Amino acid sequence: MDQTYEELVTWAYLGEVWGERMLERLLTEDVFAEERDHLRLLLALESRTRRTLERVVIAHGLDLDPGPSHKEAEEYVSTLGRNQDWDAFMRETLEIATSALPQFEKMRDLGPDDDADALQETVEHEEAVLGYSMARLAGQTEQAAAAVSAHLTTWARRSVAAS
């Protein structure tokens, strides 16, 4: 069955809530201590996209409780343990982003014109996550960070210009 626009927005928003909380917990619990700077960068990406989607959620009158997503993210982090392999985490991230991108694109395509910028930002967010994880797995740490930084810079400038 095809998902409605509202169902896709709900799924995307709660996914960003989950990602944001998961990254916060990874930082708090010092999992991947050697990757703290990259985790902070990814957290900035997740937080920005969560806020963007939150505006869409509010505009459409969707009442979403982030509590269950927070709990799921915390449980996920607790299963990682302190000895989690970064490459395994990146492979999982790549898999998630690869499967999520078509859903983000569908959401963008179904969305009303009023939501076009927010939805395009969301698609580009997922492309940045995909690019980041691919670059990290290829050993291209600087290029990985550059993909996320470029996304954040582009959309920060667009936000300022739209104000």
Topology of this structure?
Elements (H helix, E strand, L loop, with lengths): L4 H24 L7 H24 L7 H14 L5 H25 L5 H22 L3 H22 L1
Helix pairs in contact: 1-2, 1-3, 1-4, 2-5, 2-6, 4-5, 5-6
Descriptive keywords:
6 helices; 80% helix; Ferritin; globular; mainly alpha; 163 residues
Helix content: over 70%
* Individual helix count: 6
Morphology: globular
What is the CATH architecture descriptor? Up-down Bundle
Mean pLDDT: 91
Biggest sheet descriptor: none
- What percent of residues are in strands? under 5%
Structural class label: mainly alpha
* Uncertain runs: none
Number of strands: 0
**Cα-atom radius of gyration:** 16 Å
CATH topology (fold) name: Ferritin
The CATH class is identified as Mainly Alpha
**Total separate domains:** 1
Give the H and E element order.
HHHHHH
Distance from first to last alpha carbon: 39 Å
Describe the protein's architecture and organization:
The chain is an all-alpha fold and 163 residues long. The chain has one domain (5-158): Ferritin (Up-down Bundle). The chain has 6 helices and no strands. Helix 1 (5-28) packs across helix 3.
How would you summarize what this structure contains?
The protein has 163 residues and is mainly alpha-helical.
